Amino acid sequence: MPWLTLAVSVPLLAAALVAVLPARMTAAPRAVALGASVLALACMAVTWARFDAGRGMQLVEEATWIPSLDISWRLAVDGMSLALCALTVVLFVLAVIHGVGPKPMTRAAAALLLLLEGATLAFFLAQDFFLFYVAFDVTLVAMYFLIALWGEENRRYAALKFFLYTLVGSLPVLLGIIALFLAAEPNTFNMMRLAEQEPLAGAGVGASFVFLAFFVGFAIKTPVVPFHTWLPAAHVEAPTAGSVLLAGVLLKMGTYGLVRVNLQMLPDAFAEYALPVALLGVVSALYGALVALAQTDLKRLIAYTSINHMGYVIVGVAAAAAGGISAEARELAIDGAVLQMVAHGVVTAALFFLAGFIQTRARTRDLGLLNGLIRPMPVYGTLVAVAFFASLGLPGLAQFPAELQIFLGVFDVWPAVAAVTVIGIVITAGLFLLALQRAFLGETSEQWRGLTDVRGRELAAVVPLIVLTVALGVFPRLVLDVINSGSWL
Amino acid sequence: METTAWLVLAFPLAGAILIGLLAQHVPAKLTGYLGTLAIGGAFVSAVLTFLSLQGREEEARQVVFVGWDYARSVGVDAQISILVDPLSVLMILVVSGVSTLIHLYSVAYMESDQGYARFFAYLNFFVFSMLLLVLAGNFMLLIVGWAFVGAASYLLISFWYRRTTATKAGIKAFVINVVGDVGLVLGTYFIFKHTGTLDFLGTFDSVERDFEGSTGDLTAGCLLLLVGAFAKSAQIPLHTWLPDAMEGPTPVSALIHAATMVTAGVYLIARMHPLFEQAPAAADTGAIIGAVTLLVAGTIAIVVTDLKRVIAYSTMSQIGYMIMGVSAGAYVAGLFHLMTHAFFKALLFMAAGSVIAAMGGRQDLDSMGGFRKAMPYTFACFCIGGLALAAVPPFSGFFSKDEILLDLGAEGGWHWVLYVAGYVGSLLTAVYTFRLIFRAFFNDPVPEAQELMDGHLHHPAEAANPATGETEDTDVGFPGADHHIAEQSPFMRVAMGILALGAIVGGFIQIPKVTHGLESFLDPTFARSEIEVEPSDGLIYFGLVLGAVLGLLGIAIAYRIWVQKPGTSAAIQARLSVLHKLFSNKWYFDELIELVVVRPLSWFGRFGQQTFERIFVNGALVGGTTGLVRAGSAAVRAVQSGYLRSYAALLLGGLAVVGFYFLLQA
Q1: Which DSSP letter does residue A326 get?
Q2: Average pLDDT, chain B
Q3: Residues of chain A with C-beta less than 8 angstroms from the C-beta of B601
C-alpha cells in the first residue's frame, strides 16, 4: 500500500467530498473531517511501524507527473519528515475535535482544515520541488481563509498581512528552486538527487544568492526577527484551532525547509553564513523573550515565546551547518532542533488551545483583567501551569531534552553564542510565572467567580497534548530514535 | 542495594502522584498520613541502602545503577542513572530523615488548611526532587533534580496563592534558581566538551587527562557550577530570594529553606571536588564568597525584626560556612555542618512555627516577649536549637563548625583570613541567635503569651497577612483558620523532640581526637582528594576553646543588651545609625539587582513592544504619522498596491539573479 500517498490524499479527497455534501446534513462535515484526519493518523502510524530508523530517506513512492520537466509525485520519509508528519496528524485530529468557526462545523471549515492537512503532509513528505512548492503555497491559501473567515475582529487585516508576508517569502523560494533545477546536471526537481549532488557546491556568489533566497523565504515562515511581525497579528486574530495549527505545524515548515534545502542542498553556502544565521537566531530568541515579557494579551505572549523557541531551532541548525563542528555535536544539534520542532509543536498547540478556552469564557485574554482563575477553574489552571512549565523548559517535560541537546551541540562550535542564548531561558521563566501570577493566582474578582472549568471536547483536545508533553519529557527517545539525524544528514 | 536505592526515589514520587490523584476522593486527613508514610518509606529504604553499602568492600562503595537511556547516545551518555556512595547515602539519610519529621509536624500544623492535600502532594514532590538531585549519577539527571527542586520550591513558597506577597516571592525564588540552573547547564557543557561523558565517575576518572593544557575551560566550568551552587544555596549575590521565601508555610521553611534544598550547593561542590581541586581559582572564589556571605548575613540577622527572616539570614550565614569549607577542601567538615545544621535549623523553624502560631500568625519580634512560661516545651527546643546554632559545647553545631574552622586553620596560607572571618561570624551568630531567644521568650509576657498561660490560644479578630496587614479569609489559598495549635499537638512535639535530640548528640559522631565516624564513613567518596591536613594539637585545643568562648561571649552580649539593660539596643542604633541603616536594608542587594538587571530588561521589552513592534504593526496595518512609520508603511503599501505588480517585480528580480548566476558560470 502506498501509505504516504494515502496519508496525503485521504484528507484532500475528504475535503472534496465535504464540499459537495448537501447542506442539510449538518453533522456530516465534522464527521467526515474527523474520520479523514483519523485515517491520516492511521496511515502515519503504519508508516512509523514500517520505518527503519537506521536508514535515511525511505519508503519512496513515485509516479511520473510532468515528464518533460522531470516532475514527479514523489513522496518519501526520513526521520525529520516522519517526526513532523506525526506531529501534524495528531494536531489535526485534535483541531477537528475542537472545531473551527460556528458549531456544528460548516462544510467550508471542514474542507479548509482537510485541505490544509493534506497540503501540510504533502509538504513534509515531498521529495519533488514542484510538489514541495505547490504544497507550501496551498497551506498559505488554506490558512488565509481560516483566519479571514473565522478570526476575531481584525481578521481581514491579519489574514492579509499573513498572506502577503508569506507570499513574499515564497517567491524567493521559487526562484531558489528554479536555480537549483537549472544548476543540476541533468536538470531535475528531484530533491533526493539534489541533496546528493549539491549542484551549487563551489559556485561562490551564485550559491550565496540561492542560499539567501531560500533563507529569506524560510526565515519569514519560521519567523526570524526581523521578519516576524506578521506572527503576533495573525495569532491574535486567528480562531483557536487556526492558532494551534499555525504555531504547531506551519511554523515548522520554515525550519524544516532550512534543514531540508539550505543545510542538505547548499551546505557550503550555509557553512559560510552559519554565524550570521546563528546570530539572527540568537536575536530572535532573546528579542522574542523580552518582548513577550511586555505583553498583556495571553495569545500575543505565547506568539512571542514561539519566536523565542524557534530561535533556538535556528541556532541549532546553524551550528550544525558551521564548519569545524564535530560529527557528534552536529547530530546532537540537529536531533535537538528537530525534537524542539516537535516539542514546541505539542506544547504551543496546548497553550493556544488553553488561551482559546479562556477567550470563549471570559471574552478577554488580557492578563491585566483576568485574575485568580485557578479557584473557579482548578483543572484549567493546572493544565496551564503544566504547559507553562513545559514551555519554560522544565526538565521532565517536552522541551527540556530538545533544548539541552541543541545547546550542547551549539556549545561545541560557539560557546559564547550558547551562553548568550540560554539567557532567554531565564527571561521565559520570569514571564511565564508572571503571567501565571497575574491571571491565575491572587484574589478572584466577582466577574470571574462563575466561570466554568474546562470539560468535554476541550479536555479531549488538550489532554492528549499534555500527556505527550510529559511522555516526551520522560522518554524523549520515543521520537529521538526515529529522528536519528545521523542516518540522513 | 539496587532495589532499595531506587525505592528511595520511588516512594516520594508515588506519594506525590497518589495524593494528587486521590485528593478529591479521600478525606483530606488521609493524604497527610499517606505523604508521611511515603517519606518514611524512603527513609527506611535509605537506611537499608546504608546498611548494604557498609557491608561492601571499601573500594566497592561507589556504585552506579542505570535505569534507562534518556536520550539517544551519539557520544552523549544521557542516562537515568544513580550513584550510590557514602556521600549520596549521607545526603539521602539526612534528607529523608528530616523530611519524615517535618511531614509529621505538618500533619498537625497544616490541619485546618483548605489546601491540605495539595500541600502534601507538593511536599512529596519536593522530597522526590531533592533525593533525585543527591542520587543523580550523571550531570543530566543532576540538572533535572536541580530544576525540579527549584520548581517544587516555587510551588511551596506560593502555596498560599491568594497572597500577593507569597506569589511574588515564589517568582523571585524560581527566576533566581533558573539563573542557577543555567549556570549549572553551561558549566556542564564546559566539562562535557573535554571529557565527552556526562557520567560523574567517568568525568572524575579522567579529569586530569582531559583538561591537560586547558585549565581555563575547567576553571570556567567550575565557576559556572558555582553560579548554580550560589543560587540554590542563597550565597551572595544570588541570595535575595531566601528571606522572601519565608512567605511559605513554616514547615516549608524548615524543610526546604533550611535543612535540604539550600544545602544543595554544598553537596554540589563536595560531589565535584575532583574538578574543583584542579581549578583552584574557582575553589578560592567559592571559599571567599562563602566567607563574605556568612559575615554579611550575620550582620543582617542582628537587625531584622521578622522572626522567620532572622532564622533565614542565619541559614544563609551557616551555609556560608559550609560553602567556605567544602570549597577550601574541608569536605567532611562542611558535610558534617550540613548534617547538624539540618537538625538544629529544622528544629528552630519548628519552634518558631509554634511561636508564630501562638501569636495568631504574626511574626514581628517587636510584638513578642515572655513566652518562656507559656510554652515551656517550645522554649526548651528553641534553646537547644539556639545553643547548637551558637556553637556552644557540647551541642552539635559546636563540633561541626569547629571542624570547618580547624581545617581552614590547618591548611594555612591565606586560608587564615577565612579562619578569622569564621570566628568573627561565630560571635555574630551567638549574638543574633540569643537576641531572638531573649526577645521572644524573656521579659514580660505579651497579651498573647498571657492568654496562652490562661489556657487558650490567641485568635485574632480577623485573619491578616502579617507582612502587609491586608485582611484575608481562611478559605483555600490563604492560611487555614487554626494555625494556632502552638505546641499542643503530639505530632509536633514528637517531631521537635527527635530533632532536639539530634541537635544535642549529632556532633558526637566526629569529635576532634576522639571520634571519626563521619570521616571514615565518607572516606570512599573523598579517596581521590589530594588535600590532606593534619592539624596540630595546639590548633585543635585553641580552636575548641576559642569557639566555646566566643559562643558564650555572644550570649552574654545578647543578654546584656536585650534582657539586662533594655534600651541599649536603641542607643547603639542611634550611635551607629549608618551601619544600622545598611544592615536593615540588607546591604541594598535587592535595590541593586532591580537597578542593574530587572529594570533594563523590562525596559528593553517595553521598548521593543512600544517602539519597534508598534511601528511595524501600525506601519503595515494603518499607516502612520512619524517618519519611521511612513517609511515602514511605504514599503508595505508598495506591495499592497496590487501585489500582482510586486509579484512580477520580485519575479523579475529573481530571474535577474538567476541570469547573473549563469553569467558567472559562463
Answers
A1: -
A2: 86
A3: 290, 293, 427
Q: How high is the ipTM of this complex?
A: 0.89
Q: Contact A395/B148, CB-based, under 8 Å? A: yes
Report the C-alpha gap between B171 and A314 in whole angstroms.
29
The residues near A287 (Cβ < 8 Å, ≥ 6 apart) are: A225, A307, B608
pLDDT at B248 over 50: yes
B240-258 burial, b for 16+ CB within 10 Å, e for fewer?
A: bbbbbbbbbbbbbbbbbbb
What is the count of structural domains for chain A?
A: 1
Q: Cα A191 from chain centroid?
A: 21
Round to whole Å and give the CA distance between B412 and B391.
23
Residue A419 belongs to some domain of the structure: yes
- Pairing mode, if any, of strands A71-77 and A58-66? antiparallel
The reported pTM is 0.91
Is A369 part of a structural domain of the chain?
Answer: yes
A-contacting residues in B 178-207 (Cβ below 8 Å): 178-179, 181-182, 185-186, 189-190, 192-193
Q: Is B306 left (phi over 0), alpha (psi -120 to 50) or beta?
A: beta
Residue A453 domain-assigned (yes or no): yes
Bond before B237 cis per omega within 30 degrees: yes
Range of the domain at A407: 284-489
Q: Are B10 and B65 in contact (CB under 8 A)?
A: no
- Give the burial class of B399: count Cβ atoms within 10 A of its Cβ; 0-12 exposed, 13-18 middle, 19 or more buried: buried
Is residue A138 a part of any domain in this protein? no
CA dist B197 and B203 (Å) reads: 6
The model's pLDDT over B179-201, given as tens digits with 9 standing for 90+, comes to 999 999 999 988 988 888 888 99
Contact status of A293 with chain B (Cβ, < 8 Å)? yes
- Chain A, window 417-436: residues with a beta carbon less than 8 angstroms from a chain B beta carbon: 418-419, 422-423, 425-427, 429-430, 433-434
Identify how many contiguous H helices and E strands chain A contains and give both numbers: 21, 2
Burial class (CB in 10 A: 0-12, 13-18, 19+), B348: buried
Question: Locate cell 563551489: which residue?
Answer: A202
CA distances from A138 to A81, A82, A112, B21, B306 (A): 18, 20, 10, 45, 65
As a dihedral over the C-alpha atoms of residue B440, residue B443, residue B446, residue B450, rounded to 10 degrees, the angle is 110
If you count residue pairs, one on A and one on B, with CB atoms under 8 Å apart, how many are there?
Answer: 183
Please give the residue that has the higher pLDDT: either B208 or A357: A357
Residue with cell 516512594: B11
**B residues 457-486 near A, CB within 8 Å?**
476-477
The single-letter code of the amino acid at B79 is Q
Is the separation of the CB atoms in A372 and A306 below 8 Å? no
